Amino acid sequence: MKSDLISKTIEIDGNAIHYLTNETELHKSVSKPLLIFLHGFPENAFAWEPLIGCLPEGYEVIAPDLPGYNKSSPLPNDSDYSVTSLLARMSAFVGAIQRGRETILVGHDWGGAIAWPLAAFYPKLFSKLVIINAAHPSAFIQSLKHSREQRLKSQYIHQLIDTQAESELRRTHFALLKHMLGEHLFIENGPYAKLLLDNWQNNANLKAMLTYYRQMPQQVPAVDSTSEELDAIRVPNVRISLPTLVIWGKNDDAFDTGILNYLPDYVTRLDIKYHEKATHWVHREQAPWAAEEISSFIEG
């Protein structure tokens, strides 16, 4: 499949969601399922272009900018970025665009953090779930409680929720975000890097992106929290009945691989595929491999 994506916009609950799609009249007559891709922080829908370009012919794809990112409207209230509100908005988005077609949900990072509970609480919208380096919410909290390594890896979140985060990111020319994504992306200074920088420099976009973290139901505890503090953290019960593929780059700076050990407690039909060399950004770094794993999972 060539990544000949076009831009479209749909209004959901009074706010625009921009999305990329390869939808054509030809695709409307094809029986292959629809793939919906949810990107992560601090990216946007164009993050999926390399992977989409490696998929076999015939799949229709839809990749939205999450609310507040890139060309999707910022939401009016901070509480609109709570997980519960985002799930309601994104389930309405899926229902509006899928037109009764079989739909596979694919999520990475924050897109995965939304995709896990979307699949749990709106399972009739989807036939299968694909997660790329995104922690299941129950597994994430379990890992924060029991893994010092995971608490250490998650400390960057405190920088993102700080009241001065926006001004500090601008003062440092977005050094933290560049480091997260990989400096080489910005040294090469291709179209995607330029688009990201434009998004981050937009005040409304940047505030929206950070508000996702500020509205997290469980903030990250200190690395050396006391046992009493950790015992008090409540673990959500998010159970997935859909067939689920987890694609995981083992060199992830954000997640300890041990986080996946909790998944069988919450996901009944689970397959995990590891890439030994990939990082958190496996969807771009290893796009052909990821596309092959996804298409095999769908066809299988």
Description:
By secondary structure, this protein is an alpha/beta fold. The protein has one domain: Rossmann fold (3-Layer(aba) Sandwich), CATH 3.40.50. Helix content is about 40%, strand content about 20%. The protein is built from 15 helices and eight strands. It has helices at about 25-30, 50, 85-100, 110-120, 135-145, 150-155, 155-160, 165-170, 175-180, 185-190, 190-200, 205-215, 225-230, 280-285, 285-300, and strands at about 5-10, 15-20, 35-40, 60-65, 105-110, 130, 245-250, 270-280. Strands 1-2-4-3-5-6-7-8 form an eight-stranded mixed beta sheet, with helices on both faces. The radius of gyration is 18 Å and the shape is globular. The model has no long low-confidence stretch (mean pLDDT about 95).
